[in-house]
Amino acid sequence: MNVRKPSAGFPRLILGIVVCALMAPIAWAKAPDPLQAAIRHGHHLFATGTFGGNGLTCQSCHTDGGMGPGRMANGHVFPSLANAAAIFPRFSPRAGRVVTLEDQVRACIAGALGGKPVKSGSLDMTDLVSYLTSLSSGKPIDMGGKPK
Questions:
Q1: Which residues face 77 on adjacent strands?
Q2: Residue 148: what pLDDT?
Q3: What domains, with CATH codes, occur in the chain?
Q4: DSSP codes, 65-83
Q5: Which helix (H) or strand (E) holds 144?
Q6: What does the pLDDT look like over 85-126, one tens digit per residue?
Q7: Torsion of CA 6, 8, 11, 15, to 10 degrees
Q8: Residue 131 burial by Cβ neighbours in a 10 Å radius (0-12, 13-18, 19+)
Q9: 26-45 burial string, b = 16+ CB within 10 Å, else e?
């Protein structure tokens, strides 16, 4: 009986097959979700961004990442941002016009934070609005409605 001995390359072949089998799940893993990345960055800006202002952040007034009632430095309490994206656009008596959520973000940064508002359409603005919109997930659209 003539039995062939495995060649010297045979163990490498087996090792290669094992490595490929172990790496396949990594190769097939889902790529990072760009929307979730935008929401995470928006949350980071919300919690830490001072926008060159007075040292306050969005979270300085909007507690619990915007889900809790807001409180200004003077003690004035206002509703959460839990449905903010669901109620914009809305008429602003203070501005005397219809404003978008983006307009409101820019006004808060300029006013309460004393900062330089983020440019409309910028990546930072898109991420901030993505984060705020995520807070309204599942809420009914109520343009012009009241904050809750």
A1: 71
A2: 86
A3: 34-135 (1.10.760.10)
A4: GGTSPEE-TTS-EE--STT
A5: none
A6: 999 999 999 899 999 999 999 999 999 999 999 999 999 999
A7: -140
A8: buried
A9: eeeeeeeeeeeebbbbbbeb
Q: Which residue, among 96, 99, 79, 103, has the nearest Cα to 144 in the 3D structure?
A: 99
Residue 99 phi/psi, 5° resolution?
Answer: -120, 155
Q: Which residues contact 24 (CB under 8 A, 6 or more apart)?
A: none
Buried b / exposed e across 99-118, counting CB within 10 Å, b at 16+? Answer: bebbbbbbebbeebbebebb
**Which phi and psi (to 5°) does residue 108 adopt?**
-65, -45
Nearest to 52 by CA among 119, 123, 113: 113
